[in-house]
Amino acid sequence: MPDNTPSQIDELPADIAVPRDNGELQFAQPWEARAFGMAVLLNENGSYPWKHFSERLAETIHTAESHGDESAYYERWLNALESLAIENGLVSRDELTQRAIEQAHQHNHDHDHDHDHDH
Questions:
Q1: Range of the domain at 103
Q2: In whole angstroms, what is the distance from residue 45 CA to residue 101 CA?
Q3: What is the predicted pLDDT for the residue at 110?
Q4: Beta strands in the chain (DSSP E)
Q5: In a 3-state reduction of DSSP, which class is residue 20?
Q6: CB 59, CB 80: distance < 8 Å
Q7: Domains in the chain: how many in total?
Q8: Residue 77 falls within a domain, yes or no?
Q9: Is residue 74 part of a domain?
């Protein structure tokens, strides 16, 4: 049985709470919503308890802040998700690296030049 309910997300401590505006989740970029959704879905599928994710997120945020890292909230969320996925054997570090390279290549192809992508 999944242990992630909307109340668990809503009850994250203030220092790691998801960004909101008038109570609504806020995502500055589409990838942030995808990272959020992946963390929730992996929990719902039983890949890890929500408590493990929230603890890893708190550790990631604390480490970043203690080192003066100015990364954004969802960068830290993604770092926590990646480390937990590796730790739980869901993906290897090499697989994540390869996927990041592929995504960067695709992003560069899509945005480094002007042309119609309908060809």
A1: 32-110
A2: 27
A3: 61
A4: 20-21, 24-25
A5: strand
A6: yes
A7: 1
A8: yes
A9: yes
Q: What is the pTM of this model?
A: 0.80
Tokens of 86: 């590796």
Separation of alpha carbons 83 and 85, rounded Å: 5
How many C-beta atoms surround the C-beta of residue 75 within 10 A? 16
Q: pLDDT digits over 49-106, tens only? A: 999 999 999 999 999 999 999 999 999 999 999 999 999 999 999 999 998 899 888 8
Is 30 buried (19+), middle (13-18) or exposed (0-12) by CB count in 10 A?
exposed
In a domain, 94, yes or no: yes
Greatest Cα pair distance, the chain, in angstroms, is 49
Using pLDDT thresholds of 50, 70 and 90, give the confidence band for residue 1: very low
Note whether residue 90 is domain-resident. yes
Instruction: Give the type of residue at 69.
Output: D
